[in-house]
Design a protein that fits this description.
The protein is built from seven helices and no strands. The chain has 160 residues and is mainly α. The protein has two domains: 31 residues; 120 residues, Cytochrome Bc1 Complex, Chain D, domain 2 (Orthogonal Bundle). Helix 2 crosses helix 6 and helix 4 packs across helix 6. The structure holds heme C (HEC). The site of heme C has 27 residues, from helix 4, helix 5 and helix 6.
């Protein structure tokens, strides 16, 4: 009886370690660097984009370059999205650009001429991924999206 209990007791630390390792492994798995998910009905992307991008990339359709500091976001989307393009083909290059803007990565050389190179932003990779997935899923030039944007603004733009 005693030996049985001793065996169990001596196994406990090992079990504890296995538990910890499994837990860490699980956690690492959650940190997928570029998570590709459909973000319809997902306001988080809009909240983050409002906070991180719209100060410069105002979503409004009206007005020319005068008074702007960057092209509107729907123009950026237009330049990056091609018919039938897979999500990762769209998401990857935009994330890369935001983290390290450079002339040779640019698909909008005219925008660099008009506004100067975008400054690098320190946006959390997960937040950035959420933003760019949101951009992929939503046609920012559509009347439907603009209505959604107006409603969002009316609600006082409360964080989730
Ligand atoms: C401080 C102002 C500023 C902020 C904030 C900003 N941008 Fe920009 N962005 C610019 C300017 C200026 C340009 C045009 C020049 C250029 O293309 O580098 C630009 C261009 C871009 C381009 C096109 C790059 C190209 O030339 O192909 C992408 C994509 C982009 N921004 C994404 C984002 C995203 C996503 C966010 C929010 C996470 C964001 N930007 C926030 C200023 C900003």
């Amino acid at each position: 009886m005693i030996t049985k209990r001793l065996i169990i007791l001596s196994l406990l630390p090992a079990l504890l370690w296995i538990g910890i390792l499994l837990y860490l492994h699980q956690n690492n798995k959650n940190e997928v660097p570029i998570q590709l998910q459909k973000s319809e009905q997902n306001l988080e992307g809009l909240v983050l984009m409002d906070g991180y991008c719209f100060a410069c990339h105002h979503p409004g359709m009206r007005g020319g370059p005068a008074g702007r500091t960057a092209p509107p976001m729907f123009r950026v989307r237009e330049h990056y999205l091609r018919e039938g393009m897979a999500r990762e083909e769209f998401v990857g290059p935009i994330i890369a650009y935001v983290q390290h803007p450079s002339q040779d990565k640019s698909k909008m050389p005219g925008a660099i001429r008009n506004f100067g190179l975008m400054p690098p932003l320190s946006v959390d990779q997960k937040d950035l991924t959420t933003i760019v997935n949101y951009m992929y899923d939503h046609d920012l030039a559509s009347e439907e999206w603009n209505e959604e944007w107006r409603q969002f603004k009316k609600l006082g733009n409360q964080p989730l």
